Protein backbone atom coordinates (compact mmCIF):
# COMPACT_ATOMS: atom_id res chain seq x y z
CA UNK A 1 0.00 0.00 0.00
CA UNK A 2 2.81 2.42 0.93
CA UNK A 3 4.61 1.62 -2.34
CA UNK A 4 1.42 2.34 -4.29
CA UNK A 5 0.98 5.73 -2.62
CA UNK A 6 4.63 6.64 -3.22
CA UNK A 7 4.37 5.61 -6.88
CA UNK A 8 1.21 7.68 -7.30
CA UNK A 9 2.90 10.69 -5.73
CA UNK A 10 5.90 10.39 -8.06
CA UNK A 11 3.64 10.10 -11.11
CA UNK A 12 1.64 13.12 -9.97
CA UNK A 13 4.79 15.19 -9.50
CA UNK A 14 6.09 14.10 -12.89
CA UNK A 15 2.82 15.14 -14.53
CA UNK A 16 2.92 18.49 -12.73
CA UNK A 17 6.51 19.03 -13.86
CA UNK A 18 5.51 18.44 -17.48
CA UNK A 19 2.31 20.46 -17.42
CA UNK A 20 3.06 23.18 -14.90
CA UNK A 21 6.85 23.49 -14.62
CA UNK A 22 6.67 27.04 -13.22
CA UNK A 23 4.41 25.97 -10.36
CA UNK A 24 6.47 23.08 -9.03
CA UNK A 25 9.64 22.92 -6.97
CA UNK A 26 11.30 20.49 -9.34
CA UNK A 27 12.75 23.11 -11.69
CA UNK A 28 16.15 22.23 -13.06
CA UNK A 29 19.16 24.54 -12.63
CA UNK A 30 19.19 27.39 -15.14
CA UNK A 31 22.14 29.04 -16.87
CA UNK A 32 22.86 32.66 -16.12
CA UNK A 33 21.50 35.23 -16.61
CA UNK A 34 18.16 34.41 -14.96
CA UNK A 35 15.44 36.97 -15.63
CA UNK A 36 12.30 37.07 -13.52
CA UNK A 37 9.02 37.73 -15.35
CA UNK A 38 5.32 37.39 -14.71
CA UNK A 39 5.32 33.69 -15.61
CA UNK A 40 7.48 32.79 -12.62
CA UNK A 41 6.39 35.30 -9.96
CA UNK A 42 3.95 34.15 -7.28
CA UNK A 43 1.67 36.25 -5.07
CA UNK A 44 -0.17 35.33 -1.88
CA UNK A 45 -1.63 37.51 0.90
CA UNK A 46 0.21 37.58 4.19
CA UNK A 47 -1.49 36.96 7.53
CA UNK A 48 -1.67 40.70 8.01
CA UNK A 49 -3.16 41.04 4.51
CA UNK A 50 -5.90 38.49 5.25
CA UNK A 51 -6.74 40.23 8.52
CA UNK A 52 -6.86 43.58 6.75
CA UNK A 53 -9.16 42.15 4.06
CA UNK A 54 -11.56 40.87 6.74
CA UNK A 55 -11.53 44.31 8.35
CA UNK A 56 -12.40 45.92 5.02
CA UNK A 57 -15.23 43.45 4.55
CA UNK A 58 -16.68 44.33 7.98
CA UNK A 59 -16.33 48.04 7.18
CA UNK A 60 -18.11 47.50 3.87
CA UNK A 61 -21.01 45.66 5.54
CA UNK A 62 -21.36 48.43 8.15
CA UNK A 63 -21.22 51.21 5.56
CA UNK A 64 -23.87 49.54 3.38
CA UNK A 65 -26.08 48.65 6.34
CA UNK A 66 -26.15 52.21 7.65
CA UNK A 67 -25.92 53.88 4.22
CA UNK A 68 -22.86 55.74 5.44
CA UNK A 69 -21.27 57.21 2.33
CA UNK A 70 -18.09 58.53 4.03
CA UNK A 71 -17.45 55.11 5.53
CA UNK A 72 -18.07 53.49 2.15
CA UNK A 73 -15.66 55.94 0.51
CA UNK A 74 -13.00 55.19 3.13
CA UNK A 75 -13.44 51.45 2.57
CA UNK A 76 -13.02 51.88 -1.19
CA UNK A 77 -9.93 54.04 -0.72
CA UNK A 78 -8.33 51.45 1.54
CA UNK A 79 -9.18 48.68 -0.93
CA UNK A 80 -7.62 50.71 -3.73
CA UNK A 81 -4.50 51.14 -1.62
CA UNK A 82 -4.34 47.34 -1.23
CA UNK A 83 -4.53 46.89 -4.98
CA UNK A 84 -1.85 49.51 -5.57
CA UNK A 85 0.44 47.83 -3.02
CA UNK A 86 0.04 44.52 -4.87
CA UNK A 87 1.23 46.02 -8.15
CA UNK A 88 4.04 47.94 -6.44
CA UNK A 89 5.36 44.74 -4.88
CA UNK A 90 5.06 42.89 -8.18
CA UNK A 91 7.08 45.60 -9.98
CA UNK A 92 9.83 45.27 -7.34
CA UNK A 93 10.48 41.70 -8.54
CA UNK A 94 9.36 41.73 -12.17
CA UNK A 95 12.16 42.25 -14.67
CA UNK A 96 14.97 41.68 -12.17
CA UNK A 97 17.90 39.71 -13.59
CA UNK A 98 20.60 37.67 -11.87
CA UNK A 99 23.61 38.22 -14.13
CA UNK A 100 26.53 36.68 -12.27
CA UNK A 101 27.24 34.42 -9.32
CA UNK A 102 30.66 33.97 -7.72
CA UNK A 103 32.07 32.79 -4.40
CA UNK A 104 35.09 33.33 -2.20
CA UNK A 105 37.49 30.59 -1.11
CA UNK A 106 35.89 28.32 1.45
CA UNK A 107 36.89 25.36 3.63
CA UNK A 108 34.46 22.73 4.88
CA UNK A 109 32.63 23.87 7.98
CA UNK A 110 32.88 27.54 7.02
CA UNK A 111 30.08 29.51 5.33
CA UNK A 112 30.41 29.81 1.56
CA UNK A 113 30.32 33.54 0.78
CA UNK A 114 28.35 34.03 -2.43
CA UNK A 115 28.32 37.24 -4.46
CA UNK A 116 25.24 37.75 -6.61
CA UNK A 117 25.23 40.53 -9.18
CA UNK A 118 21.78 41.78 -10.17
CA UNK A 119 20.95 43.99 -13.11
CA UNK A 120 18.09 46.44 -12.84
CA UNK A 121 16.89 49.59 -14.56
CA UNK A 122 14.90 51.03 -11.66
CA UNK A 123 15.08 51.13 -7.86
CA UNK A 124 13.84 48.07 -6.03
CA UNK A 125 13.27 48.21 -2.29
CA UNK A 126 12.78 45.70 0.51
CA UNK A 127 13.95 42.55 -1.25
CA UNK A 128 14.85 39.39 0.67
CA UNK A 129 17.00 36.49 -0.47
CA UNK A 130 16.50 33.24 1.42
CA UNK A 131 17.85 29.70 1.40
CA UNK A 132 16.58 27.34 4.09
CA UNK A 133 17.08 29.23 7.37
CA UNK A 134 19.56 31.76 5.95
CA UNK A 135 18.28 35.06 4.58
CA UNK A 136 19.49 38.56 3.84
CA UNK A 137 17.59 41.77 3.08
CA UNK A 138 18.75 44.29 0.50
CA UNK A 139 17.64 47.04 -1.87
CA UNK A 140 18.79 47.90 -5.38
CA UNK A 141 19.38 51.36 -6.79
CA UNK A 142 18.48 52.50 -10.30
CA UNK A 143 20.71 52.10 -13.36
CA UNK A 144 23.41 50.27 -11.46
CA UNK A 145 24.68 46.70 -11.22
CA UNK A 146 24.45 45.65 -7.59
CA UNK A 147 26.46 42.86 -5.93
CA UNK A 148 24.77 41.23 -2.96
CA UNK A 149 26.66 39.14 -0.39
CA UNK A 150 24.92 35.95 0.72
CA UNK A 151 26.34 33.06 2.77
CA UNK A 152 25.30 29.42 2.77
CA UNK A 153 26.66 26.72 5.10
CA UNK A 154 29.12 24.10 3.89
CA UNK A 155 29.63 20.84 5.72
CA UNK A 156 31.77 18.65 3.46
CA UNK A 157 34.52 19.16 0.92
CA UNK A 158 33.87 18.90 -2.81
CA UNK A 159 31.48 20.61 -5.17
CA UNK A 160 28.64 22.58 -3.60
CA UNK A 161 25.64 23.90 -5.52
CA UNK A 162 23.78 26.88 -4.06
CA UNK A 163 20.47 25.25 -4.94
CA UNK A 164 17.15 27.08 -5.00
CA UNK A 165 17.18 30.64 -3.69
CA UNK A 166 13.91 32.41 -2.93
CA UNK A 167 13.74 36.10 -3.81
CA UNK A 168 10.75 37.76 -2.15
CA UNK A 169 9.28 41.04 -0.98
CA UNK A 170 6.27 42.30 0.99
CA UNK A 171 6.79 45.87 -0.20
CA UNK A 172 5.23 48.34 0.43
CA UNK A 173 2.54 47.62 3.05
CA UNK A 174 3.20 44.01 4.02
CA UNK A 175 -0.18 42.89 2.70
CA UNK A 176 1.11 40.51 0.03
CA UNK A 177 4.07 38.17 -0.27
CA UNK A 178 5.52 38.28 -3.79
CA UNK A 179 8.30 35.80 -4.55
CA UNK A 180 10.15 33.86 -7.21
CA UNK A 181 12.79 31.13 -7.32
CA UNK A 182 16.38 31.36 -8.53
CA UNK A 183 18.16 28.10 -9.27
CA UNK A 184 21.45 29.03 -10.94
CA UNK A 185 23.43 26.33 -12.69
CA UNK A 186 26.63 26.88 -10.74
CA UNK A 187 28.84 24.85 -8.42
CA UNK A 188 31.71 25.95 -6.19
CA UNK A 189 34.58 23.92 -4.82
CA UNK A 190 34.78 23.63 -1.04
CA UNK A 191 38.27 22.80 0.21
CA UNK A 192 38.80 20.34 3.07
CA UNK A 193 38.57 21.60 6.62
CA UNK A 194 41.77 22.79 8.28
CA UNK A 195 43.14 20.77 11.18
CA UNK A 196 43.29 22.95 14.29
CA UNK A 197 45.70 23.24 15.92
CA UNK A 198 47.91 22.37 12.97
CA UNK A 199 50.98 20.20 13.73
CA UNK A 200 54.45 21.43 12.71
CA UNK A 201 55.49 21.07 9.10
CA UNK A 202 57.34 17.84 8.29
CA UNK A 203 61.09 17.87 7.71
CA UNK A 204 62.41 18.23 4.15
CA UNK A 205 63.04 15.32 1.82
CA UNK A 206 64.87 16.66 -1.21
CA UNK A 207 67.58 15.07 -3.38
CA UNK A 208 70.93 15.93 -1.84
CA UNK A 209 73.07 14.74 -4.72
CA UNK A 210 71.42 16.21 -7.79
CA UNK A 211 69.06 19.10 -7.15
CA UNK A 212 69.84 22.66 -6.15
CA UNK A 213 67.62 25.66 -5.72
CA UNK A 214 66.44 27.28 -8.98
CA UNK A 215 68.88 29.95 -10.15
CA UNK A 216 71.89 28.49 -8.37
CA UNK A 217 75.29 29.10 -9.96
CA UNK A 218 78.93 29.46 -9.03
CA UNK A 219 79.28 33.06 -10.15
CA UNK A 220 75.90 34.47 -9.07
CA UNK A 221 75.82 32.74 -5.72
CA UNK A 222 75.22 34.80 -2.63
CA UNK A 223 77.44 34.39 0.42
CA UNK A 224 76.54 34.01 4.06
CA UNK A 225 78.23 33.03 7.29
CA UNK A 226 79.17 29.40 7.79
CA UNK A 227 76.94 27.21 9.94
CA UNK A 228 77.96 23.96 11.58
CA UNK A 229 75.32 22.12 9.55
CA UNK A 230 76.73 23.29 6.18
CA UNK A 231 78.76 20.69 4.22
CA UNK A 232 82.41 21.55 3.47
CA UNK A 233 81.84 21.58 -0.31
CA UNK A 234 79.71 24.74 -0.01
CA UNK A 235 82.48 26.76 1.66
CA UNK A 236 83.74 29.61 -0.50
CA UNK A 237 87.44 29.29 0.37
CA UNK A 238 88.71 32.27 -1.62
CA UNK A 239 86.04 34.61 -0.30
CA UNK A 240 86.60 33.28 3.22
CA UNK A 241 90.32 34.04 2.93
CA UNK A 242 89.61 37.60 1.82
CA UNK A 243 87.14 38.24 4.63
CA UNK A 244 89.01 36.26 7.27
CA UNK A 245 85.84 34.30 8.08
CA UNK A 246 84.19 31.15 6.79
CA UNK A 247 81.56 31.94 4.14
CA UNK A 248 79.31 29.58 2.17
CA UNK A 249 77.50 29.92 -1.14
CA UNK A 250 73.90 30.43 -0.05
CA UNK A 251 72.29 30.00 -3.49
CA UNK A 252 73.86 26.56 -3.90
CA UNK A 253 72.40 25.07 -0.75
CA UNK A 254 71.07 21.63 -1.31
CA UNK A 255 67.35 21.38 -1.56
CA UNK A 256 67.19 18.94 1.31
CA UNK A 257 64.87 21.37 3.13
CA UNK A 258 62.20 21.23 0.39
CA UNK A 259 58.89 20.17 1.88
CA UNK A 260 57.25 16.94 0.83
CA UNK A 261 53.68 16.66 2.06
CA UNK A 262 53.03 12.96 1.63
CA UNK A 263 49.59 11.48 2.22
CA UNK A 264 51.04 8.01 2.77
CA UNK A 265 53.51 9.24 5.40
CA UNK A 266 50.75 10.30 7.80
CA UNK A 267 50.00 7.41 10.13
CA UNK A 268 47.30 6.90 12.71
CA UNK A 269 44.62 9.00 10.99
CA UNK A 270 41.68 8.14 8.76
CA UNK A 271 41.32 9.46 5.23
CA UNK A 272 39.48 12.69 6.02
CA UNK A 273 41.76 13.49 8.95
CA UNK A 274 44.78 13.09 6.67
CA UNK A 275 43.26 15.50 4.17
CA UNK A 276 42.61 18.03 6.92
CA UNK A 277 46.24 17.81 8.06
CA UNK A 278 47.56 18.15 4.50
CA UNK A 279 45.34 21.19 4.00
CA UNK A 280 46.76 22.81 7.13
CA UNK A 281 50.30 22.03 5.96
CA UNK A 282 49.68 23.52 2.50
CA UNK A 283 48.51 26.78 4.07
CA UNK A 284 51.38 26.77 6.56
CA UNK A 285 53.95 26.21 3.79
CA UNK A 286 52.48 29.08 1.78
CA UNK A 287 52.58 31.34 4.82
CA UNK A 288 56.23 30.40 5.42
CA UNK A 289 57.07 30.88 1.72
CA UNK A 290 58.57 27.39 1.45
CA UNK A 291 58.32 25.36 -1.73
CA UNK A 292 56.51 22.08 -1.29
CA UNK A 293 55.40 18.98 -3.12
CA UNK A 294 52.07 17.31 -2.42
CA UNK A 295 51.92 13.53 -2.81
CA UNK A 296 48.48 11.89 -2.98
CA UNK A 297 47.65 8.26 -3.78
CA UNK A 298 46.69 9.11 -7.37
CA UNK A 299 48.85 12.14 -8.21
CA UNK A 300 51.71 14.42 -7.22
CA UNK A 301 51.72 18.21 -7.42
CA UNK A 302 54.83 20.34 -7.31
CA UNK A 303 57.28 21.36 -6.24
CA UNK A 304 56.00 24.91 -6.31
CA UNK A 305 54.83 27.93 -4.39
CA UNK A 306 52.28 30.69 -4.89
CA UNK A 307 48.60 31.14 -5.58
CA UNK A 308 48.35 28.88 -8.62
CA UNK A 309 50.21 26.05 -6.90
CA UNK A 310 48.18 26.47 -3.71
CA UNK A 311 44.86 26.29 -5.57
CA UNK A 312 46.02 23.22 -7.48
CA UNK A 313 47.00 21.48 -4.24
CA UNK A 314 43.79 22.41 -2.43
CA UNK A 315 41.70 21.39 -5.42
CA UNK A 316 43.35 17.97 -5.47
CA UNK A 317 42.68 17.58 -1.76
CA UNK A 318 39.05 18.66 -2.16
CA UNK A 319 38.39 16.16 -4.95
CA UNK A 320 40.34 13.26 -3.44
CA UNK A 321 38.35 9.99 -3.18
CA UNK A 322 36.45 9.63 0.08
CA UNK A 323 38.40 6.49 0.91
CA UNK A 324 41.73 8.31 0.51
Task: Summarize this structure briefly.
It contains six helices and 16 strands. By secondary structure, the chain is of the alpha+beta class.
Please describe the topology of this protein.
Blueprint: H1 2-19, E1 34-35, E2 42-45, H2 47-65, H3 69-93, E3 97-103, E4 112-119, E5 124-131, E6 134-140, E7 146-152, E8 158-160, E9 165-169, E10 176-182, E11 188-190, E12 223-225, H4 237-243, E13 247-249, E14 259-262, H5 271-288, E15 292-296, E16 299-304, H6 307-318
Parallel strand pairs: 14-15
Antiparallel strand pairs: 1-3, 2-10, 3-4, 4-7, 5-6, 5-9, 8-11, 9-10, 12-13, 15-16
Helix pairs in contact: 2-3, 5-6
Task: Kindly describe this structure.
- The protein has 324 residues and is α+β, with helices and mostly antiparallel strands.
- It folds into 2 domains: 17-190, no CATH class; 223-318, no CATH class.
- The protein has 6 helices and 16 strands.
- It has helices at residues 2-19, 47-65, 69-93, 237-243, 271-288, 307-318; strands spanning 34-35, 42-45, 97-103, 112-119, 124-131, 134-140, 146-152, 158-160, 165-169, 176-182, 188-190, 223-225, 247-249, 259-262, 292-296, 299-304.
- The chain has a 5-stranded antiparallel sheet with strand order 2-10-9-5-6. A 4-stranded antiparallel sheet has the order 1-3-4-7, with no helix packed on it. Strands 14-15-16 form a 3-stranded mixed sheet, covered by helices on one side.
- A hairpin with an 8-residue loop joins β3 (97-103) and β4.
- α2 (47-65) runs antiparallel to α3 and α5 (271-288) packs antiparallel against α6.
- It is elongated.
Amino acid sequence: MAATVADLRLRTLAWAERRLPALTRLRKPEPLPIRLDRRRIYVLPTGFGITFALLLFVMLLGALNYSNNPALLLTCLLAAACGASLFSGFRAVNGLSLARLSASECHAGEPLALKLRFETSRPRASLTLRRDATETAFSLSADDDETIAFSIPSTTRGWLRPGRLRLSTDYPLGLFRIWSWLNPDAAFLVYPAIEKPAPPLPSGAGNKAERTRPGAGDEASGLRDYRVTDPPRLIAWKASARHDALLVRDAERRIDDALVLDHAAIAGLDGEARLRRLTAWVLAAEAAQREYTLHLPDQSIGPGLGGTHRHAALRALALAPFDA
